[in-house]
């Protein structure tokens, strides 16, 4: 099927009209299936006065079908353990069980049928092929292998594509580097945060990272690789091409947002997972091309735990303008900005941690590690950015260098975010390093409790 450029040329280059005709038919089929077979969806739709017969067009789908959220899935699994009332297959047909990280309580469990597991491998392979992985590559998987689907989905796709998988897992960074060079890994799959940590460690150990055997990095699990400063640090530091990929674990196969060689933002594989950008305050209002909003995803073909209009809580914008690679999928030109619930409200201004990261990386002299600390002083919010200086910077007068850097960072952040941040410049290797997703915010402000004091 793959021809050196496309995983499936006909599918990836067909007209929007042909693709969307197929999408509508698949959406109608999925709606009938979940309404007839899955009590979770039937009760949800009945409560909203919706019936699958009401969907005659893609516009109907956006306007009429109610969304599903993560709390709804957690509540349904608590009421009907272990998999909720939306399993979609016989228990005996489940081949794998995974789950969310469970950082806010019990993990939400993901069950995959045998047929879906095979289907997921195909779509994961298409995503990786879009990013540039080819048979003959040695793919180092520096990802967590646990409940989290990131590593497992990557492994499935690499194997289906025909490349060599090297599933090391996350952590043991010195060993990661030793083995990378020893076996000649050509592709790295991990989070942007861990790739930057690996780079920092490589330099400290005396490696010439820009001459590593790697040629390509595919970054998953968190925003970052679409941020220009982060991309530049990774590309120049490792001497690689950077590709952004991923949706969210609930939407496995999560590779349906995958960036091509044009490096113009991830293509959205609309014929596998239908993706909408909707108003943040009205999930039934589809936004025009190029306008930022909330992302809503729908499985078109998966039958075990299918997600229909899943409100992921992420923000982006989508465009249909042509891509030089020839694929006719729409794109997310800036990737996923971040989670809507990660947005910080500081003295009336809305700020994303990824926005702060973007600004910091544009100031010469800063390192890649930072943290935002929020406190309440009197009646006002007080915001501080802790940022390490670049370990490559070795000025004769450290104090003068830090003072100058502090002012340049403050000015940049004020200009970009409209927030007056205090800035502390820290020595390299001061902040804790993450093996997967970074925790960039320490919000110490008192939490408001209705009826409390």
From TrEMBL:
Highest taxon above the source species: Bacteria
Ligase is among the record's keywords: yes
Residue span(s) of domain AMP-dependent synthetase/ligase: 90-297
Keywords from the UniProt entry: Ligase
InterPro entries xref list: AMP-bd_C_sf, AMP-dep_Lig_C, AMP-dep_synth/lig_dom, ANL_N_sf
A family per Pfam: AMP-binding_C_2
Ranges of residues in domain AMP-dependent ligase C-terminal: 348-445
GO molecular function: ligase activity
UniProt protein name: Phenylacetate-CoA ligase
């Amino acid at each position: 099927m793959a021809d050196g450029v496309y995983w499936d040329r006909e599918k990836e280059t067909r007209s929007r009209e042909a693709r969307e005709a197929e999408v509508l038919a698949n959406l109608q089929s999925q709606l009938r299936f979940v309404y007839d077979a899955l009590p979770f969806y039937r009760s949800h739709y009945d409560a909203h006065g919706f019936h699958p017969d009401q969907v005659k067009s893609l516009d109907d789908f956006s306007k009429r079908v109610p969304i599903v959220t993560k709390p709804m899935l957690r509540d349904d699994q608590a009421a009907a353990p272990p998999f909720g009332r939306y399993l979609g297959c016989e228990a005996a047909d489940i081949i794998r069980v995974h789950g969310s990280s469970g950082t806010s309580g019990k993990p939400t469990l993901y069950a995959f049928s045998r047929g879906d597991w095979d289907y997921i491998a195909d779509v994961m392979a298409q995503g990786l092929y879009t990013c540039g992985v080819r048979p003959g590559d040695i793919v180092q998987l520096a990802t967590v292998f646990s409940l989290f689907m990131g590593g497992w989905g990557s492994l499935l796709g690499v194997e289906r594509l025909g490349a060599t998988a090297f599933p090391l897992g996350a952590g043991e960074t010195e060993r990661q580097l030793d083995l990378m060079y020893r076996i000649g890994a050509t592709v790295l799959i991990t989070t942007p945060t861990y790739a930057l940590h690996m780079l920092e460690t490589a330099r400290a150990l005396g490696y010439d990272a820009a001459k590593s055997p790697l040629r390509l990095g595919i970054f998953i699990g968190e925003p970052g690789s679409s941020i220009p400063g982060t991309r530049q640090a990774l590309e120049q530091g490792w001497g690689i091409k950077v590709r952004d990929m991923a949706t969210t674990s609930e939407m496995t196969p999560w590779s349906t947002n995958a960036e091509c060689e044009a490096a113009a933002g991830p293509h959205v594989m609309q014929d596998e997972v239908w993706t909408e950008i909707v108003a943040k305050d009205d999930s039934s209002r589809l936004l025009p091309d190029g306008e930022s909003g909330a992302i809503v995803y729908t499985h078109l073909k998966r039958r075990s735990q299918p997600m229909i209009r899943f409100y992921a809580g992420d923000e982006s914008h989508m465009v249909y303008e042509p891509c030089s690679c020839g694929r006719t999928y729409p794109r997310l030109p800036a990737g996923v900005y971040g989670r809507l619930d990660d947005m910080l409200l500081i003295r009336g201004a809305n700020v994303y941690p990824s926005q702060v990261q973007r600004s910091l990386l544009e100031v010469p002299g800063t390192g890649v590690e930072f943290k935002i600390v929020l406190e309440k002083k009197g009646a006002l919010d007080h915001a501080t950015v802790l940022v390490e200086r670049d370990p490559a910077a070795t000025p004769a007068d450290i104090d003068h260098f830090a003072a100058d850097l502090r002012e340049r960072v403050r000015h940049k952040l004020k200009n970009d975010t409209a927030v007056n941040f205090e800035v502390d410049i820290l020595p390299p290797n001061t902040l804790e390093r993450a093996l997967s997703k970074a925790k960039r915010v320490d919000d110490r402000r008192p939490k408001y409790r209705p009826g409390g004091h």
